[in-house]
TrEMBL record:
The keyword Aminoacyl-tRNA synthetase does not apply. Keywords: Ion channel, Ion transport, Membrane, Transmembrane, Transmembrane helix, Transport. Residues 7-181 form the CSC1/OSCA1-like N-terminal transmembrane domain. InterPro entries: Csc1-like (IPR045122), CSC1/OSCA1-like_7TM (IPR003864), CSC1/OSCA1-like_cyt (IPR027815), CSC1/OSCA1-like_N (IPR032880). Residues 375-612 form the CSC1/OSCA1-like 7TM region domain. It comes from Aquilegia coerulea (Rocky mountain columbine). PANTHER family: PROBABLE MEMBRANE PROTEIN DUF221-RELATED (PTHR13018), TO DEHYDRATION PROTEIN, PUTATIVE, EXPRESSED-RELATED (PTHR13018:SF98). Belongs to the CSC1 (TC 1.A.17) family. It is a multi-pass membrane protein. Its main location: membrane. This is CSC1/OSCA1-like 7TM region domain-containing protein. Residues 202-364 form the CSC1/OSCA1-like cytosolic domain.
């Protein structure tokens, strides 16, 4: 079990790591070559231009490295800049979802700042004044931090009234703050919708599982059905076509157009020499021809093929999918259609609100109802199995966190474990890092599972993935760490006590797991959040694309992907921190300051990410 010294080692390592990430970010963002990576949204809206443009050959170094030494004196100015934008400006700049996402971190601060103050002032002295664990030190594995928890209060003590009172007070405060925040967010949403212009998706419904009728096309069936059942509000529809070949031709034309732009730019820079290319494989062999004329001719030929494929797709009745987008002349008509059953057969004419085109996951549009039901059942079983399969690595992580229990089971490891530096590293830093690594690939796996289930909108896929990930963290990170960690810590007590005493041993040991969660918060909530602002992955990808792929400004804009907050991973993590704070507020209050640091630091980092 981690001691105060072990937690100190972990805190030192994580603070040093976070500082290194922040320092690297502060320096990298000042370099002109990285400008598009750290200010992508400002480029998209046209508020920022590339500092690498212009300057001629005399300033070739200045295109890549910031030579103005004065800017390095203010390398931390990103912190106040991230807080300058008001909430209304933030909504206009990044959208309502981003503003509400940031308010969750503020909600955490509003809830846990007063809770932390009360818990540290009232409960910690009460817990420390007792000495129950001193008499149980031969039966249980304890640390100095455990003496500040509720485990240190003797059974049936009158001091438990402090804990009961604080539990009710904290519950009332949390419910009150949740109510106020929900009321505020609901008002923001209504105000946002009222201030927006009308959009097509507000009047459109997507209908799936359209039955095929002999002698009628899917488009005719949809038109007849909605004119019959919604005559006063039906406006029109758009059938969905299987146009994969057409889409491939469009992508091919975009590549040719990009090569044409590249060669035209090349000619503009050197007008005395026409660019040339070879007509063979990958331009490596064949006849040498004029590049500009070659790509113009290729595009003209491809345009004819595209038009021919378009006409063929529209005339082919088999290319029409059993789905369509139906438009109405009022929001009310669309709402009635989207929220009611359209047929006696509940597996046909399935309607729902149409996602925005950018939010639609097209691959799942034509999946039959029965197939979706089977897929959801199979994925539910797979998620259940995956959750409990991950108990194995979680148990291994807990064995690292509880070396005292491990030494009793495996005495041959004692010489290595007893080395002071190794012991502090294993107990204070490695468990949280190992758990973070095991959890790293999960969001991707769960997103694939959600796609297999057949949901239509990418936003729904993210929400379902987040729900799966949260259940996973609840069972494995929270409950799993407590149960397996308690088993490792109190293994000797389990083996020598009667079965009736095991629940008591677990009950006493649960507050002691706060030490593990403290190390996990420092790994994930401190160093992990600091790595988020560095944007290391987008930085590497941008420069790799810049070296090997980028040929035109269009390529450079595509390489400059602003990305978005990884909601399927971030929201469940947020919920876990709220859960830890609420559970341990009365049980082990010493954990609360670490959660406060997370909420404050994460708010600053994500506000910068949303703004820039």
């Amino acid at each position: 079990m981690a001691s105060l010294e072990d937690i100190g080692v972990s805190a030192f390592i994580n603070i040093l790591t976070a500082f290194a990430f922040l320092l690297a970010f502060a320096l990298l963002r000042l370099q002109p070559i990285n400008d598009r990576v750290y200010f992508p949204k400002w480029y998209i809206i046209g508020s920022r231009t590339s500092p690498t443009n212009g300057g001629g050959r005399r300033n070739i170094v200045g295109k890549f490295v910031n030579l103005n030494w004065k800017t390095y004196l203010t390398f931390l100015n990103w912190m106040p800049q991230a807080l300058q934008m008001s909430e209304s400006q933030l909504i206009q700049h990044a959208g309502l979802d981003s503003a509400v996402f940031l308010r969750i971190y503020l909600l955490g601060l509003k809830i846990f700042v007063p809770v932390t103050i009360l818990a540290l002032v009232v409960l910690v002295p009460v817990n420390a004044s007792e000495g129950t664990l001193f008499f149980l030190r031969k039966e249980l594995v304890i640390s100095n931090i455990d003496k500040l928890s509720i485990s240190n209060v003797r059974p049936k003590s009158q001091k438990f009234w402090f804990h009961i009172s604080m539990a009710y007070l904290f519950t009332f405060w949390i419910c009150y703050m949740l109510y106020k925040e929900y009321d505020r967010v609901a008002f923001m949403r209504l105000h946002y919708l009222a201030s927006q212009q009308r959009r097509v998706d507000q009047f459109t419904v997507v209908v799936r599982n359209v039955p095929r009728v002999s002698g009628h096309s899917i488009s005719e069936s949809v038109d007849h059905f909605f004119q019959t059942n919604h005559p006063n509000h039906y406006l029109g529809h758009q059938a969905v076509y299987n146009a994969n070949k057409f889409a491939r031709l469009i992508r091919q034309r975009e590549r040719l157009h990009n090569w044409l732009d590249y060669n035209q730019l090349k000619f503009e820079r050197h007008p005395d020499k026409r660019p040339t290319t070879k007509t063979g494989f990958l331009g490596l062999c064949g006849t040498k021809v004029d590049s500009i004329e070659f790509y113009k001719q290729k595009m003209q030929e491809l345009d004819k093929r595209i038009e021919s494929e378009r006409e063929r797709t529209l005339k082919d009745s088999k290319a029409i999918m059993p789905a369509a987008f139906v438009s109405f002349n009022s929001r009310w008509g669309a709402a009635v259609c989207a929220q009611t059953q359209q047929s006696k057969n509940p597996t046909l004419w399935l309607t729902d609100w149409a996602p925005e085109p950018r939010d639609l996951y097209w691959h799942n549009l034509a999946i039959p109802f029965v197939s979706i039901s089977v897929r959801k059942l199979v994925i539910s079983i797979a998620v259940f199995a995956l959750v409990f399969f991950y108990m194995i690595p979680i148990a291994f992580v807990q064995s690292l966190a509880n070396l005292d229990g491990l030494k009793r089971v495996a005495p041959f490891l004692r010489p290595v474990i007893e080395v002071k530096v190794i012991k502090s590293f294993l107990q204070g830093f490695l468990p949280g890092l190992a758990l973070k690594i095991f959890m790293y690939i999960l969001p991707t796996v769960l997103m694939i599972m959600s796609k297999v289930e057949g949901y239509l909108a990418i936003s729904v896929l993210e929400r379902k993935t987040a729900a799966k990930y949260y259940y996973f963290m609840l069972v494995n990170v929270f409950l799993g760490s407590i149960v397996t960690g308690t088993a490792f810590e109190q293994l000797d007590a389990f083996l020598h006590q009667s079965p009736t005493q095991i629940p008591r041993t677990i009950g006493v040991s649960i507050p002691m797991k706060a030490t593990f969660f403290i190390t996990y918060i420092m790994i994930d909530g401190w160093a992990g959040i600091a790595s988020e602002i560095l944007r290391l992955k987008p930085l590497v990808i941008f420069h790799l694309k810049n070296m090997f792929i980028v040929k035109t400004d269009r390529d450079r804009e595509r390489a400059m992907d602003p990305g978005s907050v990884d909601l399927p991973e971030t929201l469940p993590t947020l919920q876990l921190y709220f859960l830890l704070g609420i559970v341990y507020a009365v049980v082990t209050p010493i954990l609360l300051p670490f959660i406060l640091v997370f909420f404050g630091f994460a708010y600053l980092v994500y506000r910068h990410q949303v703004c820039y």
